[in-house]
Amino acid sequence: MIRLCNNTDTDTIYQIINDAAQAYKGVIPEDRYHEPYMSISELNHEIHDGVVFWGFEENHELLGVMGIQDKGEVSLIRHAYVRTNQRNSGLGTKLLSHIIALTDKPILIGTWSSAEWAIKFYLKNGFSLTSPNEKKMLLRTYWDIPERQVETSVVLCDSKWTLREGLAIPRKVRRK
């Protein structure tokens, strides 16, 4: 079952993120990887900054989490992680489908350019890679990340997203 996470889930979210992020070790740039991948204070900051986590729960245990963050004209998918022993079980797709249904805004997702499995997952679920120039503009506009992370990341967008004159415009209001 998918449910909204609350403050009693913070430690479990922390554990899931850091368990799943082990996949990044030796894959993402060495200067961007550290253990824990996300500290509890970083997680609390993300929650305080508006990231709302949803979790997939089975037998009263959270097995995966995914956050959504409202950024005005767009929504960001943030911190999508499934426990290592639950990978490739469909939990990520279920969480993503649930999150997508929560908003009618265009959705953007940032991930490491070397995390090929994550990129393939989002492409399989209907997202598209933005151009390198769009990526830079989007990461600098909607995320608060270091320049090194901008250089080593990609942004994926859903079908409601387009760029026109450098502004985010949902397809349904785009002028021809």
From TrEMBL:
The keyword tRNA processing is annotated on this UniProt entry: no
UniProt entry keywords in alphabetical sequence: Transferase
InterPro entries: Acyl_CoA_acyltransferase (IPR016181), GNAT_dom (IPR000182)
Pfam family, one: Acetyltransf_7
Classification via SUPFAM superfamilies: Acyl-CoA N-acyltransferases (Nat)
Key word Transferase present: yes
Residue intervals of the N-acetyltransferase domain: 1-149
GO molecular function per UniProt: acyltransferase activity, transferring groups other than amino-acyl groups
Protein name per UniProt: GNAT family N-acetyltransferase
Organism: Cohnella herbarum
